[in-house]
Design brief:
126 residues; mainly beta; nine-stranded mixed β-sheet; globular; aspartate 1-decarboxylase activity
Length: 126
């Protein structure tokens, strides 16, 4: 059986731009792409914490160290500058790989600067 698991996420990034008339995609600070392992042109799912909108697009490389998170094209209707978003990429693996697999979790501050990384999430309390 093949399983679709979380590969990487950038947690609570702040949208810096929403460019309606730019060719689609989401520009992400290149440093955050490298740290997370999300590749340029890879499909990403974006979850808008402010509005609840959930949508998919693809990642493009933004300037390293710029802090840019630019939601472009039609997706610009789903996020505005200042919104907090979670950007996720998923991958497929078999059950043997899944048994030992850990995602890359990237945490940023309000300026989209790396605060820390992790490979597991804390258990949710009841």
């Amino acid at each position: 059986m093949q399983l679709n698991l979380l590969k990487a996420k950038i947690h609570r990034a702040t949208v810096t731009h929403a460019e309606l008339h730019y060719e689609g995609s989401c520009a992400i600070d290149g440093r955050l792409l490298d740290i997370s392992g999300i590749r340029e042109y890879e499909m990403v799912h974006i979850y808008n914490i402010n509005s609840g909108h959930r949508f998919s697009t693809y990642a493009i490389r933004g300037e390293e160290g710029s802090g840019v998170i630019s939601v472009n094209g039609a997706a610009a209707h789903k996020a505005q500058p200042g919104d907090l978003v979670i950007i996720c990429a998923y991958g497929i693996c078999d059950e043997a790989e899944a048994a030992k697999y850990k995602p890359t979790l990237v945490y940023v501050d309000r300026d989209n600067r790396l605060t820390h990384t992790n490979h597991s999430m804390p258990a949710q309390a009841a």
